Amino acid sequence: MQRKLLPIGALPAWANLCNVELSGVKISSLPGAKGSGIVAATDHNGESAILMKIPRELILSLENVWMYAKSDRNLREVLEASGDYARTARGAILIFLLLQITSTSLLPIKIASSNPFTDYIQFLPPHVPLPTFWENAEIELVKGTSLEAALRSKLNSLSREFDRLRDSTQPIKWCQQYWWDAETGRLSLNDWKQVDAMYRSRALDLPGTGHAMVPCIDMANHASGEDTVALYDTDANGNAILVLRDGKTLTAGDEVTITYGDEKGACEMLFSYGFIDDSMESARELFLDLDIPEDDPLRHAKKAVAKSAPGFRLFQTGESTGWEGPFVWLLCVNEEDGLKFQLLQSNVGASELDVSWKGEELRDVSKLDGLLRADPLWDVYNLRAVTILQGRVESQLHSLGSAGEQMQIAAEQGPSSLPNLEVAMDLHDLEEELLLQAYDDFEHQKLALLDSKVVQEYLRSSSVEAGGEDDFS
Questions:
Q1: Which residues contact 68 (CB under 8 A, 6 or more apart)?
Q2: Tell me: the pLDDT tens digits for 220-250?
Q3: CA 355 to CA 250: how far, in whole Å?
């Protein structure tokens, strides 16, 4: 759908009408390709000065979406038809945004009841440059990076959500006519991607409220570390406020920035905001998937009880790397080690899997590593984990190498051939550096564990009993 747009210069009038307080700051266009942002209109020298206050009723949260639905029959119909999905902050806000876009499109009738967001959404950029809008050739560029799996999963998820929205709202007369009808319907998957991009790139984790969109504050651009000028918070009355950081001063004309998350990795920044911070010297973190081998006799049982994501998070910690992922430990032990599964019948006749480790019931499989650490053979299990992780890192490095060759070919054709080539290359290089460091760290850990007396005795006994031993090469 084609959305009506308003110039950013008209935003002060909207803010004044909606009782938004701007204290010595303004929202205006920025030079270059930065779009719009918050700029100091006067000098600020006071610590913790409140630069902006947004009334609590203007915060687009799960609670306020349902509040708007009380006086908006069409919104209420769609929310109720969407079931549990509309009881989540993301689901409710995306549906709300979709109705606002529908209302500001060129339809012959008015769909949603007027509210402050009917106008505010017209100030938002017509396009959000997230990877979910990339062409197939650009998606191919991120092969071998952690963005590849995340992006393909997200695109599949958006498609499923859109299909569910259609199935649940087709019985609603106006939805069928203006969204889904082959001739008069105008809603497309691209519109759903747009509201998803609006939400992901602008939502804040607001203290006391949770994930929400906050008009005007969401115009602030990102800066990390000491370059972050202001912080967002909630005051005693539930209003959202933008506060000058302690020790910071502003001169008229300075840009007021917030952080989108200094702890976020390069992949998450690109995935959610469409860019990688220029100051980022490390990928910081990435997620690598894992699967239970086909020849594991307990494969199906392990998959049935696993509640955590099938993989592990690799992250930078000081001068070295670390990892976390409860799923990994399910790959490290089996029945001969003491892991057992038993099918039990409940009182109501349903079947459930009972998991135990060396006779001790394991109600939460994510706690398996705690039992393994207390086991006399902990060094053996730890060595298995390190070997699995190093192997997975090695395979990812091979994939990155192949992708790097394709990037080089694309770069030789010129930047105009693929607009997002540069940021894809940045992600490739940052993740490759993290993976190489992790591979070396795992190698050092592996060599240290192979020197363990526990491991050496285990290998000797395994060799005698079975005529072979675990392969930790």
A1: 75, 96, 113, 115
A2: 999 999 999 999 999 999 999 999 999 899 9
A3: 59
Which residue, among 298, 382, 291, has the nearest Cα to 340 in the 3D structure?
298
What does the alpha-carbon distance between residue 137 and residue 149 come to, in Å, rounded to a whole number? Answer: 15
> What Rg, from alpha-carbon coordinates, does the chain have?
27
Q: Rounded to the nearest 5°, which phi and psi values hold at 143?
A: -60, 135
Q: Bridge partners of 317? A: 320
Rounded Cα–Cα distance for residues 403 and 148 (Å): 11
Q: Are 64 and 38 in contact (CB under 8 A)?
A: no
Collapsed DSSP state (helix, strand, coil) of residue 204: strand
Among the listed residues 440, 441, 405, 408, the one whose alpha carbon sits nearest the alpha carbon of residue 144: 405
pLDDT tens digits, 305-355? 999 999 999 999 999 999 999 999 999 999 999 999 998 876 666 778 899
Which sign does the torsion angle of CA 410, 412, 417, 422 carry? positive
Residue 121 near residue 101, CB atoms below 8 Å = yes
Instruction: Give the DSSP H/E element, type plus range, for residue 330.
Output: helix 327-330
| Tokens describing residue 416 | 């105009």
- Report yes or no: 171 and 81 within 8 Å, Cβ to Cβ: yes
**Packed helices 189-202 and 89-103: angle between N→C axes, nearest 10 degrees:** 120
The rounded percent of the chain whose pLDDT value lies above 90 is 80
Count of CB atoms situated within 10 Å of the CB of 347: 5
Q: Which of 42, 173, 189, 68 has the alpha carbon at shortest distance from 120?
A: 68
Instruction: Please tell me the distance from the alpha carbon of residue 95 to that of residue 196, in angstroms, as a whole number.
Output: 10
- Contact residues for 317 (Cβ-Cβ < 8 A; gap 6+): none
Tell me how far apart the alpha carbons of residues 58 and 239 are, in angstroms, rounded to a whole number. 9
- 396 close to 377: Cβ distance less than 8 angstroms: no
- Give kind and range of the element (H or E) at residue 386: helix 378-412
Number of CB atoms found within 10 A of residue 372's CB: 22
Helices (H), 203-326: 266-273, 299-305
Q: Which of 62-66, 134-138, 358-362 has the highest mean pLDDT?
A: 62-66
| Cβ contacts of 253 within 8 Å, gap of 6 or more | 39, 40
Give tens-digit pLDDT for 48-59. 799 999 999 999
Eight-class DSSP state of 282: S
Say what the alpha-carbon torsion angle 392, 396, 402, 403 is, to the nearest 10 degrees. 160
